[in-house]
Amino acid sequence: MADDLITMVTTDHRELKRLFDMMQNDRSSRPLALPLAVAMLEAHSEAEEDRVYPAVAREAGEKEEAEHAAEEHHQAEDLGKHLLEMDWESKAFDRALDEWVGAVLHHVEEEENEILPALGEAVGSDRLRELGLEFATRRARKLAGQPLSHVGDSTGAKRQPTTSGGAKATAGGARATASRAKATAGGAKATAGGTKATAGGAKATVGGTRAELYEKARELGIEGRSSMSKEELAQQVKKAQGRRKR
């Protein structure tokens, strides 16, 4: 079934492999294919960690496998981001690309031969379709909100040409902004007192995506993190941070 989780995940794997083959066999494809592969892998991994691995741990009883797979995700993501900062025509890039591809394909093999079959045996087809929808939705949201980084530019910022006309318009806007800044300064003073009072009463919260919370949990040594939901991770991270402050 095209809408079940296993089909969706393996389809992603095939597309990543296609991009890998393209980059390894045709250097000219790298400026386009690499950012696509990095963004796709990050969205795929985050969707699995948020929606799939908790089910693998709880419903298939494969908690250790889920945690191991999540660790492999983070290692692969780090390698991919490092490639974005490198010269894609260099031999060093070739070696780093081979290392990245090897790490991802090793993970894919374990996932397709061990994790997904275990989940498929533990749950029915209806549950696989439900997980597939959750995975696809989470993945799509990540991709929709994620700008593609440029190869050789780790910030992903777009370079804008400077024109004389634009400079004149900007100068005029700067003068207008300066006038508004003077008027705002008085209001800022009045607001400052209220800000201090609010800051004292604000409750400390732990925010971020599940992937970010997972990384914090990993740094804090929280066990069982791969099987936790986003809310559970936030709660455990907050507790662990509180213990460290004492």
Major beta-sheet overview? none
Class by SSE composition: mainly alpha
Radius of gyration over all CA atoms, rounded:
23 Å
Helix content: over 70%
Mean pLDDT across residues: 79
Structure description:
- This protein has 246 residues and is an all-alpha fold.
- It folds into 2 domains: 140 residues; 36 residues.
- It is 77% helix and 0% strand.
- It is built from 8 helices and no strands.
- α2 packs antiparallel against α5 and α3 packs antiparallel against α4.
- The longest helix has 38 residues.
- The radius of gyration is 23 Å and the shape is globular.
- About 21% of the residues have low confidence.
Task: Provide a short characterization of the protein structure.
Helices cover 77% and strands 0% of the residues.
